[in-house]
Amino acid sequence: MQQDDAIHITDLNKIYDNGFRALDGINLTIRRGEIFALLGPNGAGKTTLINAICGIVRPSSGSITVSGFDHATHYRQARSFIGLVPQELTTDAFESVWNTVSFSRGLFGKPRNPAYIESVLKQLSLWDKKSEQIRRLSGGMKRRVMIAKALAHEPEILFLDEPSAGVDVELRKSMWAQVRALRETGVTIILTTHYIEEAQEMADRIGVINNGKLILTECKDELMHKMGKHEMSFTLRDPITSIPPDLASYPLTLANDGNTLVLTYNTYEHNDVSDFLEKLQINGIRPKDIQSRQSSLEEIFMQLVEAN
Amino acid sequence: MNYLGIAAIYRFEMSRTLRTIGQSIASPVLSTMLYFVVFGSAIGGRIQAINGVPYGAFIVPGLIMLTVLGQSVANASFGIYFPRFTGTIYEILSAPLSFVEIVIGYVGAAATKAVLIGVIVLATAGFFVPLHIAHPLWVMFFLVMTSITFSLLGFIIGIWADGFEKLQLIPLLVITPLTFLGGSFYSINMLPPFWYKVSLFNPVVYLVSGFRWSFYEHSDVSVTTSLVMIAVFTVAALVTIARIFKTGYRIRK
After folding, report:
1. Distance CA B39, CA B46 (A)
2. Fold for domain A228-307?
3. CA distance to partner chain B, nearest, from residue A80 (Å)
4. Fewer CB within 10 Å: N-end or C-end of chain B?
């Protein structure tokens, strides 16, 4: 484990009483100050992993250190670094926003700091609702309250377990802007989301979990580079019936009844298409339109999960 | 020790009491008052004095215990069950709090409420029956210890229960009968020998007896036995709770 690691997990397993193995030999390091996106299908083990790190679930074996502190033997120090926004909107319906956020701060042994709570509520556009009972707030506002509660004790590590689930586009965008702002202040962020395009946009690194196993952790750019595919579609002026033998060495497919020629290659191959274009011309194939697209993180994610 | 964490839980629980003051305080006080009216003022005058204490005054310690036991169990069980039910328990479990601190927060608040109600009932009893308190400090001691002990029991029930029905089960089917048969309305010395011996297995007998002694210096069993029984019960509850947190039973999966 290095000095700048926020979380270090070694050989973590969780087997529930009914025999279900929710986590299977997880080894993971989260670096300080990064945004780490944990992706996986429903029931893959994302929430169990987060809950194990936060102390809500008891691991069957393995170790977790948070900022260098073992989460079992030095649980006070380890937990004091962590803020958690759980997946479910679990709030004290009859409490006011101010009281519930202050309560969260107190639980972590932090003295009252009305100025800080005020700044958190203002950042999250909750200041006008500070005296409102939580049950009177909209779903989106409740989600903000959950974030405010997690931030109340000034955590260095923030877990966001599907924070944008059931949240409208506008609120989602403002929430991600807040996440970015938090990262700017040095907070390490671990998030799970079903909106993979969000992970693609936000995360520095990606982890993919499936059936309790962490099947990949990679820098997002590296992952896109290694596993991403480029696809160039040439709409032809005159359709062709087969790929000319001269072009057989290229990864080509014919589509749209011979009207489209599709060239697919791995991003990391850095193909020089000028040779290919020259050969098209030599073979009398004249494109009237060219479209290029790179595979999304979602496609890479699906590819990984299906392969697993 | 996370004192601020304990204070946060304690304040949070107490604010719930203030928010629902009618249900939390006024309701049990009113119920107890009705007992005083019926058994103290209306019927009490026609019942013989027990150990030289008029019947209306004799039942005061028992009625206070009846209320305090019920309230301690109800407050503590609801206090911990509700966050489990709503899911907000995640916050307690992920906070840097030991099980001792969590218990002090919840049980402390539940016991405070029970003591508060006990004191209000005691003060109000003075309007209905002539009161005599021989040992005020012992009255407070028994009141506080009983509240703490039964709040611990309530805390265990709140963790054990997996539905609101179960939350009511033990208080209704166990605590209330034990309290009624624990000498709240009579001295167990008045029972036939067989039922007297059976009563000695009822832990509430020792609480009521000790509490009544602190009022009128008469007890069904020795005060020392009462104190030992309270200590045994408290330790048993603490050991059970420690075990619950160690194993994560119905709290940490």
Report:
1. 10
2. Alpha-Beta Plaits (3.30.70)
3. 6
4. N
Assess A94–B contact: CB distance below 8 Å, yes or no: yes
pLDDT in tens, A205-233: 989 898 899 988 888 777 776 767 778 88
What is the DSSP pairing of strand A21-31 with strand A5-15? antiparallel
Q: How far is CA B23 from the centre of its chain?
A: 17
- Is residue A2 over pLDDT 70? no
Residues A94-146 pLDDT 10s: 889 999 999 999 999 999 999 999 999 998 888 999 999 999 988 888 888 99
Asked whether the beta carbons of residue B4 and residue A110 sit closer than 8 angstroms, the reply is yes
What is the distance in angstroms between the CA of the first residue and the CA of the last residue of chain B?
25
**Residues in chain B within 8 Å Cβ distance of A108:** 5, 95-96
Low-confidence ranges of chain B (pLDDT < 70): none
Q: Give A125: exposed, middle or buried? Use CB within 10 Å, 0-12, 13-18, 19+.
A: middle
> What's the complex ipTM?
0.83
Residue spans per domain, chain A: 5-222, 228-307
- CATH code for the part of the protein at A5-222: 3.40.50.300
Q: Helices in B20-54 by DSSP H: which ranges?
A: 21, 27-35
Structure confidence at residue A3 (pLDDT): 56
Residues in chain B with CB shorter than 8 Å from the CB of A107 are 5, 8-9, 91-92, 95, 97
Say if B12 is an interface residue toward chain A (CB within 8 Å). Answer: yes
At A137, the amino acid letter reads: L
